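cron nightly-structures :: item 1 of 1
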Amino acid sequence: MTTVAAYAAPAAKAPLERTTIERRAVGEFDVLIDIKFAGICHSDIHQAREGWGEAIFPMVPGHEIAGVVSEVGPGVTKYAVGDRVGVGCMVDSCRECDNCKAGLEQYCVQGSVWTYNGVGKDGEPTYGGYSEKVVVDENFVVRIPEGLSLDVAAPLLCAGITTYSPLRHWNVGPGKKVAVVGFGGLGHMGVKIAHALGAEVTVLSQSLRKKDDGLRMGADHYYATSDPATFEELKGAFDVILNTVSAPLDFPAFLSLLATNGAMVNVGVPEEQVDIPLAGLFGNRRNLTSSNIGGIPETQEMLDFCAEHGLGAEIELIGADKINEAYERVIASDVRYRFVIDTATI
């Protein structure tokens, strides 16, 4: 066991505070990672404040982890000391079901082991990336290519793969028209990736205040959803709508923007129950669907793609003492576009 410093929420809705946690000894197939940077995802806030239901406390959030390997177990073959690596939302799965064997560990039939607010196979709670070090099985670690600096790579472990996976699944590329709903931590990566895939990209945001940023990052068009004319002008326009916001929407209005056989893919999870009038699906044979992060092979594919195209997250680097302030700013949409913790400050 190794004692490391971390920032944890001691109870639901309580401010995060500096503490220490125990990391397990490095096992045969484990990798010990010195965490360099950890992104702050909106889902960290949902879970630390029990917005998605009962949670495990004390909670060390963080599933956007970038660091350097400092020790490997004797059976490890994929990584060596000094390698630049990342850890996303999962640290284990059953590895035996059809989904796991297909590289879709996020859909493990028995349930994935989440990086934090989960329970490992040893029965112990999992603790996330707001900490100095983490021990992870090599099969749930990915390599960060040299073309990506660790600070801008960290958010790719959730925000990047959460947007990349559905865009690839729905065959986004040249000739496809894509709308990204919301232009925040997930949305800005959705725009960058969809643009790099060759699609015509439109941002649908509440206002036009981030329009210049959106166009700079690859959007071809930028509309305000607060303007009713937007929904008239864009009716039937899109092959794919990627909804990145974690708040209820007027689903019939957004579904009306889909072309025939188009899909609205939801990657944000509201805390509130959402009503979806089925009548909105019938026109144009519309699809209303969802996507949950990505498997380990696809996460590596995403990182390689982002390195090839020079795509990193737009970040605001903070010290650990600013985590609670950052949470409030995320809720107020006052971040451009992802807070990343310099874990040297923990």
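cron nightly-structures :: done
The first helix runs from residue 42 to 48.
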